[in-house]
Design a protein that fits this description.
alpha/beta; OB fold (Dihydrolipoamide Acetyltransferase, E2P); 3 domains; seven-stranded mixed β-sheet; binds S-adenosyl-L-homocysteine
Length: 463
């Protein structure tokens, strides 16, 4: 039994020194070689902890008293940092965060992918790492007859009210507060997860950083939204620069935020934003990177790694609203984008037109189905860009890439673990990873984005 083997006892206190930081921001202390994870502990710090849970091979502890502070420790500026759980690293200086993310990427590539002879550049961070998010999705609940909009208290389903979120664009805070107040005024009931009753589930705000345009999305359980007209006109009156008011209906018992049905209540179906000099129309359900300033840094790196001369055919798998595709189209002969969400592909086509780009084609479907079909039809790519969700690329797609043999693969990844796994598959199939550039898209959280340049092995020596 684990309990017998563990050299620690539950509910006992221990003096420890933290040796490391996990990828999700917990300090790691070892007691007789047995690792204990403790939220809020930083490497080098000495502390008293209480062991609160013992599992097979590791345990969890709570920080009781800090004897020695790390020089990298800072006071988290957010007053609800500890309760919220949305950020995990606010107690670590920004420099310290960037170093920890770099170390994490290097370690994961080596451990999971056995990718060791690769340059992992220092993480590109932000000069002002606050107020960067352009999208807020805030759950709504009820307290003493009034509405609360905020976040789920950690390890519970209780919603705590939040007046400001320091990683959100200020405009998103304004939108959430205003819409909450308007809905409260008209007695709109919050959705209750337990009873599956009530109306308003989430308030979503989207903000175009360059254009200032605002989208408001009310995510409801029911099709019916009482006082709809009044609510709409008050939103128009009180939310500056609102261009689009949307209702999304999610009747399911689920923690997935959006449902399948989306209605325009007022204004446009989408708002606009720019990344560099390319304009994008973004609709409620489409994926759009949440940190537009760093997105430009990321896409420029992807473009650099693609090494386009104007003669290439490029495939952009997982293309979303065509952001990377259109960035690449200006430097390529032809770009094919593929994406699973139909609305995103409509946006991508609209975005190509909006920017006068006529060498980009888009298809709806699973990358792992569409790209093998293209390959069978004789479409041959010189470069393939992939930007999959956290679970990484489907193996069928990786095998098609290996068969198609594009000279270059550019892998944009929001999860170093699946990046490492997929790079191993590509390397075993004849590719070599040359460089990895981590980019800090999500300051103060444990997330890190990477872009990797991968080349066919016979090409590797030439670079
Ligand atoms: N490259 C885009 C989007 C990246 S996010 C950008 O930078 O904005 C990943 C995208 O992959 C999402 O838009 C998601 O809808 C899409 N997706 C998820 N699974 C997919 C699959 N199997 N095939 C194609 N697209 C998929």
């Amino acid at each position: 039994m684990a309990k017998v083997e563990a050299p620690v006892t539950k509910n006992e206190y221990y003096d420890v020194t933290f040796e490391d930081l996990t990828h999700d921001g917990a300090g790691v202390a070892k007691i007789d070689g047995f690792p204990i994870f403790v939220a809020n502990g930083l490497p080098g710090e000495k502390a008293k902890i209480k062991v609160i849970k013992i599992k097979k091979g590791y345990g969890y502890g709570r920080l009781i008293e800090l004897y020695e502070r790390s020089p990298d420790r800072v006071d988290a500026p957010c007053p609800i940092y500890k309760q919220c759980g949305g950020c995990q690293l606010q107690h670590l200086s920004y420099e310290g965060q960037l170093k920890a993310k770099h170390k994490h990427v290097k370690e994961v590539l080596a451990r999971i992918g056995k990718i060791e002879n690769v340059i992992v550049h220092p993480v590109l961070g932000m000069s002002n790492p606050w107020r960067y998010r352009n999208k807020a999705q805030v759950p709504v609940g009820e307290r003493e007859g009034g509405l609360v909009a905020g976040f789920y208290q950690q390890r519970s389903h209780q919603i705590i009210n939040m007046d400001a979120c320091l990683i959100q664009q200020t405009m998103n805070d304004v939108v959430v507060q205003t819409v909450k107040n308007i809905c409260e005024k008209y007695g709109i009931q919050a959705y209750n997860e337990e009873t599956h009753k009530g109306v308003l589930r989430h308030i979503m705000a989207r903000y175009g950083l360059v254009t200032n345009e605002v989208m408001v999305v009310l995510i409801t359980r029911t099709d019916d939204l009482p006082y709809k007209k009044k609510i709409i006109s008050e939103i128009i009156e009180n939310v500056p620069n609102v261009k689009s008011i949307i209702q999304n209906i999610n009747p399911q018992r689920t923690n997935v935020i959006m449902g399948d049905e989306t209605k325009v209540l007022w204004g446009a179906e989408y708002i606009h934003d720019y990344i560099g000099d390319i304009q994008f129309a973004i609709s409620a359900r489409s994926f759009y990177q949440v940190n537009p300033e760093q997105t430009k840094v990321l896409y420029e790196k992807a473009l650099e790694y693609a090494e386009l001369t104007g003669e290439e055919t490029v495939i952009d798998a997982y293309c979303g609203i065509g952001t990377i595709s259109l960035f690449l189209a200006k430097k390529a002969k032809k770009v094919y984008g593929v994406e699973i969400v139909p609305e995103a592909i409509e946006d991508a086509k609209r975005n190509a037109k909006l920017n006068g780009i006529d060498n980009a084609e888009f298809a709806v479907g699973e990358a792992e189905v569409v790209i093998p079909n293209w390959y069978k039809q004789g479409i041959q790519a010189d470069c393939i860009v992939v930007d999959p969700p956290r679970k990484g690329c489907d193996e069928a797609l990786l095998q098609t890439i290996i068969a198609m043999k594009p000279k270059r693969v550019v892998y944009v990844s929001c999860n170093p673990a699946t990046l490492a796994r997929d790079l191993r598959i590509l390397e075993d199939g004849g590719y070599q990873t040359l460089e990895v550039q981590p980019v800090d898209m999500f300051p103060h959280t444990n997330h890190v984005e990477c872009v990797a340049q991968i080349v066919l092995k016979k090409e590797a020596g030439k670079n």
